[in-house]
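task queued by scheduler; priority normal; single chain, no ligands, no partner chains; default sampling; output format set to structure tokens
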Amino acid sequence: MRSPLPRAVLTRLETGRLVVLSVLLGGLVGALCVGLRLLLERVLEAGAWLTGFSPPGTPGEGGLLMAFGEALPWGLLALPLMGAAYVWLIPREDGDPLNQLVRGAHTRGDAPTLSTHLRTLAATLLGHGAGLLVGRDAPYTVLGGLGAWLLGRATRLDAVETRSLTLAGAAAGLGAVLHAPLAAAVLVAEVLYRRFEFEFEVLMPCVLASVAAYAVYGLAFGFLPLLSVPEVGVPTLAGVGPLVGVALAVTLLGWTALLVCRSVPDAWTRGHRRVALGAAFGLLTAALAFWASPAVLGDGTGWAQVGLSGFLGEEALGEGAWRWLLLALGARLAFGGGVLPSVGVGGLLGVGLGSVLGADPTLAALVGIVAFVTVTLNAPLAAALLVVAWGGDALLPAALVTAGLAHALSGETGLLPAQLRSRAQSPAPLPVLLPGAGAVTIRRAPAAPAPLLPLHAAPPEEAETGLAPLESEQELYRRPVPRSWAGARLSVLSLPPGVEVVGVVRGGAVRVPRPQMRLTADDELVFLARPDAYAALEGVLRLPGV
């Protein structure tokens, strides 16, 4: 039944609903994160008792700038078992929590199941508590997805709302643990693609949820930055050279880590071999902790804080190198994923290289963080905003230049295999604003032999928009421009009866179709058609030479 309200009013109501749901989700996730932090404290105490060593922590999360104890050999022998258990619990196809989020966002909005959430949460708590290379942000990311799942049980969500709120839930969890809600929101909107592209329609739900979650989390634990950064200013002209050297070197090391990661044969990460490699990774971590340095235990952010404070010199380069090795070898097994392991590696490498090159250790550490996070996650803007949130606005010029340099030099590689190159490759349902109409959801037309997946959109009001309402048998379809149509004008296209072009998606925006508009190979077409007529069009397009 058609709503008596005008289309413009309905659009505002739909937008307001997403705003309210995003804020509610943020409050829910923030409350869950409060409980998670209390649980993590108990888990870390158990891990320190097991291994005999407690690494330094970050001030924002209540940590101390000193390590306690010495690595006990009999306690370290438990790390192979912990590594095997972690790999067994993490689904191979989904990977670490951040990769699960990206993968779910690109599969028509299908979020991980409840069992996947619970298994991943247990794995991240186990791995982080034992001192393996699992970031503190990993369980918070999972908790954000769980919050979105709980909200979906309480209210009816369509595919686009489910996808947007799942991303917003992850931004809420990351905003709480990173103590940087705006940077976390930008990270989630940016990390979906390898190229410098954003999904602006999910950015605002992410911002709302992240800010609300951090407000609740901060009420419980305070609003200190995650890292305590000494006051720094804009780098002097004499200090620019060493900082550029740090940025280039850390970028090169990050890119090399990705090459080592891709060199691990895919067959080794399947079945029983994967679990055995998880045990081998735990054994390697234990061996390094016993014979090299116990500083390899944990995600490394505490040691990055020690370096930021000026208590580490050139020895930070060795500590960062060991962590670099663990990340490069363990990434295919879901170790070292997320944000904070890259923060730890980049910070330590930056401090060590800065000491060698004569740069300010604080600035060198922050430059190293920006460069390494940019390379591993393909999120240059979020990396820059993170260090600005922790260190102040004076860091913004250096952070932006470092992020741009690292992204330009490292290309489109990254640690997250679920990342797509660009938005045009994502098969997920996307909310699009058709000219003169309200927001609708367009599903991409699947390739044969998959069944056609049409869009069931609310009919627009003719009196308000000037568009005729959709006939009951008509649907909207979205597909890439066929190769033979590239360069052709819309006016020369030969379409079956009952099929018309109502929109051209170019550069992420929907344009009004004009008869003289020339199509490009990167465009996508939005068709209004009956299912049988569109099936006839697809049959013609599958002919050889078309």
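post-processing summary
- The radius of gyration is 25 Å.
- The CA atoms of residues 182 and 207 lie 6 Å apart.
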